Amino acid sequence: MTGSTARHAIVLGAENDKRAIVLGAGLAGSTTANRLAARGYAITLIDAAGGPGEGASGNRAGVLRPLPARDDNLLAQVTRAGFLATSRHLQALDNAGLAAGFAANGGLWGKTGVLHLARDAVHEATQRRIVADQQPPADYLRFVERDEAAALCGWPVDAGGWWFPGGAWVSPANYCRANLLQHAANISTHYTTRVERIAHDHGLWRAFAADGGCLAEAPHLVVANAADARRLLGDWLPVFPARGQVTHLPAAAGSPPRCVVCRLGYVTPEIAGQRYAGATFLMKDNDPAVRATDHAENLAKLDFILPGFSAGIDPAAIATLPGRTGFRPASPDRLPIVGAVPKLGDAPAPPGLWLVNGFGARGIVWSALAGELIADAIDGSRPGLDRGLAEALAPARFLDRPRRRANKAP
Ligand SMILES: Cc1cc2nc3c(=O)[nH]c(=O)nc-3n(C[C@H](O)[C@H](O)[C@H](O)COP(=O)(O)OP(=O)(O)OC[C@H]3O[C@@H](n4cnc5c(N)ncnc54)[C@H](O)[C@@H]3O)c2cc1C
């Protein structure tokens, strides 16, 4: 970008300059880019990888469902808002004809419903009580007894549980691609481009490459580059990578389970000849390899979900199973980190710097809610989310905590 463009932007004033840089083309960056592009912003999207959805967001399938709680705590409220926002957003992408484009490439999503089986009798009683107390609409959540759970998924199971009829499997990588296709005219993509540092000058944010060259400039910069954000923004930001591995299993067309089933882990229905079972979760482990030990853990979880399901898998073949490893950007309180960046290093951050991060194990769930929150904040709209909830997600929440705790890996 040239200096004359920069001068022009200053003359226009930031409020009229509808340009934004989005750093990261995973679920966080691509959904935010989509929501801003839909409001007429011109987006420069930068990612070090060769295309969208190649980091944590590169799995073939993940789960979309909320997480109710007896006291309807913050996590429960935000997962409900996130579940509904992502469901609406995926439906809009689907209605725009974008799902059809991925039919030959694993699909965009499958609204099969999600069965969340109780892990033991105490958990089953809790699940039952939450539904009885909260009386959710039946098309959102109901409790199903063991026999109905087995009929829903098409496999004998050990427990009843929650049935989310609107729950779904989602292909995160195709979701990222669809986000960028929907308003493609407003999104300029730059892959294999690593941002080494960011700086603010004369009302504009700039992203720089390692050779010192300016990659882009705009009045707004959205930092959505997962755990690398800590390097750019400072140690006050407690985002750490959490390793996870998914196991890929061959699946005959129409074979059970018919819906996504969760019970400590998850398993998807058949998707283009495959099903996906996961996932492991390990902090302080940077090994990118697909490991036999993690496959064994996933298969043990699979057997806990659907008893006897993995009996047909030859133990000697486990080491050769395909799979995928990714690194979730995890926050210490399991809530996403979304909003204005309060600090750059040790100094207060100038305006126009935004963070979408800390998606942890729920990136699909948080994505559309986070993207809308940032778009609301940038264009000055009234937030679609309750103010208290929006504040609970703000990056500034970590400044109120003792530095010792904020810097500790969760
Ligand atoms: C095994 C596993 C299973 C999961 N299952 C589920 C599930 O069932 N349901 C669910 O909701 N979520 C699930 N998740 C979580 C979800 O996938 C993540 O929360 C989400 O992908 C995080 O998205 P992100 O955009 O923040 O990060 P990423 O997808 O990692 O994107 C960050 C991007 O930033 C780029 N980048 C980083 N640094 C730079 C730089 N300096 N310059 C340029 N580019 C840079 C990277 O290349 C990358 O593309 C799972 C995750 C894993 C790993």
Account of the 3D structure:
- The protein is α+β, with helices and mostly antiparallel strands and 410 residues long.
- It folds into two domains: 3-57 and 174-239 and 332-406, 3-Layer(bba) Sandwich (FAD/NAD(P)-binding domain), CATH 3.50.50; 73-171 and 240-330, D-Amino Acid Oxidase, Chain A, domain 2 (2-Layer Sandwich).
- 30% of the residues lie in helices and 24% in strands.
- It has eleven helices and 23 strands.
- Strands 5, 6, 7, 14, 15, 16, 17, 18 and 19 form a nine-stranded mixed beta sheet that branches. The protein has a six-stranded mixed beta sheet with strand order 9-2-1-13-23-20.
- A hairpin with a 5-residue loop joins strand 11 and strand 12.
- It is globular and about 65 Å long.
- Mean pLDDT is 93; it is low at 1-12 and 403-410.
- The structure holds flavin-adenine dinucleotide (FAD).
- Flavin-adenine dinucleotide is lined by residues 23-29, 46-49, 54-57, 59, 62-63, 172, 194-195, 224-226, 228, 244-246, 278-279, 326, 328-329, 357, 359-365.
